[in-house]
Amino acid sequence: LFRDRRAHAYTRQLMETEARMSREAWVQATNAADRRRQTVISELLRIDHRRSTEISELRAALQGQVIALQGQVTALQAQVTTLQGQRGLAGDPTQPELPEEAGGSA
Asked: Which pTM was predicted?
């Protein structure tokens, strides 16, 4: 009976040690996985910030181009108005007549 008690105590100690080591291994694995996830998240955030900055810069460049194009359209509209005024669209003999639509009769 005494030997059984010692063997039981030794077996219990081995099982407790194995359980503790298993828990420690699980904690280490969990911590390693957390560190990997955090690294991935940090990298994704860095990439997202870079893309956001690029998008903002491109948006500003496009806005500048839109403003320039609007200025060109305004200038062209002014030229058209000036040319229309110079030609006096109504009854100008130098104005070519518009061709009739093909196949249509009035």
From this structure: 0.53
Q: Which DSSP state fits 91? A: T
Which residue pairs, CB below 8 angstroms and at least 24 apart, start in 61-67? Answer: none
Q: Name the CA radius of gyration of the chain, rounded.
A: 42
How much of the chain is in helix, strand and coil states, percent to nearest 5? Answer: 80, 0, 20
Confirm if 87 and 94 have CB atoms less than 8 A apart: yes
Q: Are 86 and 92 in contact (CB under 8 A)?
A: no
Please give the average per-residue pLDDT across 81-94, as a whole number: 75
Rounded CA gap, 68 and 65, in Å? 5
Gap between the Cα atoms of 71 and 102, Å rounded: 38
Q: How far is Cα 30 from Cα 40, in angstroms, rounded to an integer?
A: 15
